[in-house]
Amino acid sequence: MAASYTLFRRVAAKSPTFLSTSTITKTFHLQARSFTSNDNSVSLFNKMSVGNQRKYYMLGGKGGVGKTSCAASLAVKFANYGHPTIVVSTDPAHSLSDSFDQDLTGGTLVPIQGLDSPLFALEINPEKTKEDFRNASQNNGGAGVKDMMDSMGLGMIADQLGDLKLAELLDAPPPGLDEAIAISKVMQFVDSPEYSKFTRIVFDTAPTGHTLRLLSLPDFMDASIGKIMKLKKKLSSATSAFKSMFGKEQPPLVEGASDKLEQLRERMAKVRDLFRDSETTEFVIVTIPTVMAVKESSRLHASLKKESVPVQRLIVNQILPPSATDCKFCSMRRKDQLRALDMIRNDPELGSLVLTEAPLVDVEIRGIPALQFMGDIIWK
Predict the structure, then answer these.
(1) Which domain holds residue 360?
(2) Of 96-100, 134-138, 185-189, where does the model show the most confidence?
(3) Which of 38, 59, 125, 315 is the most exposed place for a label (fewest CB within 10 A)?
(4) Per-position DSSP letters for 322-336, written without gaps between them
């Protein structure tokens, strides 16, 4: 890497523009280019960019390793290659706005400024979602809640909640709300025609623990709904038997609730299968060359394998270049990093992954020019 380089920063930033999903399809007319190659030596990024079918990339790892910068730079590169792209942050402590140097906090898709290609970003905002629920619960006698949950793909849950006061419940949100909202957004990406033109969706995930909960939630929901449906059938059979003992006429069974639970179960199964489909989804682990980060990355890969989530690549970020001066601090840090890199190569979980080494650079990666620079280093 050259010792010096120039990054052109934007002189003036326009005010952010927020778009509703209903207007997305009207905002761009560019189509992703068709990539084909018979060359076995084709670059890793070209393999990632081949084809116009929808693909999902999830970047995750320990906190503070540069996941957001890697995810944002990948999204920018996809867009520059002609792919209509969305980059989504599922981390409760968002930094995607900082990475793009643009306000993305509205909880809706925002077009990224400074690019000629279609790139949109979204920071999932649980607080805004809770506030929307509270407002909806006060409109039309609570009917607004069902409308809102329908739009998230969760209308069947609203039917099961009945007359519960959601506004009061949301004052003390349950654990896993962030992950549930992220899953609902994935369901929208899969099913909603507004998102059909996007061919690449990049997820900037939360640190390891949150991400593993996100990936395991579809299985948990599938099992839970299955148990609820079995219990519902048993209760229905017991009620029927009890009524027949007293000769009471059995009313026709109402299947609507069960049908909607089954629909939710099928949609969760679709998300689960999406996470595990190596043709459409890839999880990229991001780490730094320290013993602690390498060990956590190894555990993460083991957990991802257990969930059958496809992983092919490992990015080791913030690697110090060899020191050209007599800097003892630099020399010691470099030795520690080389030791961590040896750990990765010999690790039973990480050794089989495609390794990308990203250098520590001397500027903050912020804004489109910096992200393009980083993307050219990492995504070759």
Answers:
(1) 33-128+177-219+265-378
(2) 96-100
(3) 38
(4) PPSS--HHHHHHHHH
The CATH number for 279's domain is 3.40.50.300
pLDDT in tens, 33-81: 433 334 433 578 988 998 888 899 999 999 899 999 999 999 999 999 9
Tell me the residue type at 375.
G
Rg (CA), the chain: 24
Structural domain includes residue 342:
yes
**pLDDT band, very low/low/confident/very high, at 175 (cuts 50, 70, 90):** low
Domain membership of residue 197 (yes or no) is yes
Decide if 1 is inside a domain: no
DSSP 128-151: HHHHHHHHHHTSGGGHHHHHHHHH
Tokens of 88: 């989504």
CB hemisphere CA count around 336 (13 angstroms): 15
- Catalytic residue check, 178: no
Summarised one tens digit per residue, pLDDT across range 295-310 is 999 999 999 998 899 9
Note the pTM of the prediction, 2 decimals: 0.74
Residues 16-52: b if buried by 16+ CB within 10 A, e if exposed = beeeeeeebeeeeeeebeebeeeeeeeeebeebbeeb
How many structural domains comprise the chain?
A: 1
- Residue 342 CA to residue 329 CA, distance in Å, equals 20
